[in-house]
């Protein structure tokens, strides 16, 4: 029996002084604190007898920059998988993340009719389909080893809930997926057997931007 671990790593803090909901918008880089978070995760994974043989990231800059120190720590070439990208969101480019009271304006109401889907962006179910396909491909390609997939909060959280057998609809305030956190999925051959959540950069989170990122 081969035991394989796929680590879902959320990117570190983003430089976002204007509090924009950046979503899939290009050009949002890590802040200095985010870069420290990325290095902290790389140090964490380098400790002990880790067997990381591949590092794959979302195409967005913040994910690529978070993945780079991990790939360097293990002497690996960083790969990209579009399936790990942030969730589509019709509010991207706005400041609603920083000023949620704007949602009370009638011009937004047509987007908010179904929070269980959600109606303002890519459905939770669609995110899970693409994320689990990326997880399965990574697991099969690197059977018996460890792989790091760098993605974003909502896709990681929805994927976690799917593996735990929970409904995908949820309260965003209750997501256990902090900046630079690891959601580690362990498989025996093709069978999912356990999930472990850690925050290697937890000591740095107190200084992080409280504006919801992605």
Automatic annotation (TrEMBL):
Q: Which SUPFAM superfamilies has this protein been placed in?
A: Phosphoglycerate mutase-like
* InterPro entries tied to this protein: His_Pase_superF_clade-1 (IPR013078), His_PPase_superfam (IPR029033), PGM_Phosphatase (IPR050275)
Q: Which domain of life is it from?
A: Bacteria
Q: Name one Pfam family in it.
A: His_Phos_1
Q: What is this protein called?
A: Broad specificity phosphatase PhoE
Question: What species is given as this protein's source?
Answer: Isoptericola halotolerans
């Amino acid at each position: 029996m081969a035991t394989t671990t796929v680590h879902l790593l959320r990117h570190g803090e983003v430089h976002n002084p204007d509090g924009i909901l950046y979503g899939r918008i290009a050009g949002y880089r890590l802040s200095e604190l985010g870069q420290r978070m990325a290095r902290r995760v790389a140090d964490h994974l380098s400790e002990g007898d880790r067997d990381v043989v591949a590092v794959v990231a979302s195409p967005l800059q913040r994910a690529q920059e978070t993945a780079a120190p991990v790939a360097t720590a293990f002497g690996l070439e960083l790969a990209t998988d579009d399936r790990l990208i942030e969730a589509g969101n019709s509010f991207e480019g706005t400041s609603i993340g920083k000023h949620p009271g704007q949602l009370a304006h009638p011009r937004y109401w047509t987007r908010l009719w179904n929070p269980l889907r959600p109606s303002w962006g890519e459905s939770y179910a669609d995110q899970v389909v693409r994320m689990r396909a990326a997880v399965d491909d990574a697991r099969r390609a690197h059977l018996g080893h460890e792989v790091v997939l760098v993605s974003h909060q909502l896709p990681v959280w929805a994927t976690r809930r799917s593996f735990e057998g929970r409904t995908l609809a949820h309260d965003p305030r209750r997501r256990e997926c902090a900046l630079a956190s690891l959601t580690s999925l362990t498989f025996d051959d093709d069978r999912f057997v356990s999930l472990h959540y850690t925050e290697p950069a937890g000591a740095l989170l107190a200084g992080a931007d409280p504006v919801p990122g992605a």
